[in-house]
Write a structure and sequence with these properties.
Keywords: Oxidoreductase. It is an enzyme of class 1 (oxidoreductase). The protein is α/β, with parallel strands linked by helices. Helices cover 44% and strands 15% of the residues. Strand 1, helix 1 (18-29) and strand 2 (33-38) form a beta-alpha-beta unit. Helix 1 runs parallel beside helix 2 and helix 3 (68-82) runs parallel beside helix 4. The longest helix has 29 residues, at 106-134. It is globular, with a radius of gyration of 17 Å. The relative contact order is 0.14. The structure holds nicotinamide-adenine-dinucleotide.
Length: 252
Amino acid sequence: MTQTFQNTAVLVTGGASGIGRAIALAFAAAGAKTVVADQNAEGAAETVSQIEASGGQGISVVVDITDANAIADLVKTAAHAFGRLDVAVNNAGVLGTPAPLHDTDNAMFDQVLSVNLRGLFLCMKYEIHQMLKQGGGSIVNVASLAGLVGFSGFAPYAASKHAVLGLTKTAALEYAKSNIRVNAVCPSIIETPMTAASHIPPQLVEKYLNAHPMRRAGRPEEVASAVLWLASDGASFVNGTALTVDGGAFAQ
Ligand SMILES: NC(=O)c1ccc[n+]([C@@H]2O[C@H](COP(=O)([O-])OP(=O)(O)OC[C@H]3O[C@@H](n4cnc5c(N)ncnc54)[C@H](O)[C@@H]3O)[C@@H](O)[C@H]2O)c1
């Protein structure tokens, strides 16, 4: 089934890079009017340039998702720009620095939780305010396979992504009767700046990929197509799910 998002207003956080950019481009290619939100102004503007170059419509908003007032304003801006907010994809996130739990820096723990959990919570909160006002919508959170299983060397990240699934499932229950579906995707290793050698030691990536059934990393576009399906009417009875996009890794 071809997914069409004609006349649909979509917000993507973390849309300046990697998976978020692929999601924003995929929605725009399917006809959506897309708000690209990120703290990286240049990257967000580049994503919008790419949307416009292929004939789509988008705006960029510079925002730090840990700032509650900025998120409230972001949702207002999105709703004002395109009349409503049909779909919100909460994708912005950070990995943190690899360390075993007993050597994990306390400030780093707080920072990862502040972006991946509290920041995502704030986004959901204000998006849901808008969706309740307009009578419905669809939210897709970008969690991780590390939301379902442990992720050796990245305890704060794994903790934050497990918690994202808790928020996803609870919101799915709370707003099912309000015509708002809330789902999550759980990608394994995807080729983006986050998994580049500067962030994860190459030998660790190699270890994960060797244990991966498909023996390869995923591509951002492969996550984007799962997100578009979850957001689409084709998934109208799918709510509160954590969809793995992992080449079979979770099946082991
Ligand atoms: N790459 C992977 O292997 C992988 C696997 C599973 C899940 N994920 C998740 O996918 C999402 C996107 O990751 P990616 O790989 O594309 O990473 P990325 O680093 O390429 O992109 C993350 C984006 O989030 C933005 N961001 C970070 N903190 C922010 C903040 N406080 N406010 C606003 N924007 C902020 C960054 O500026 C960046 O543009 C993340 O939530 C990540 O945890 C990634």
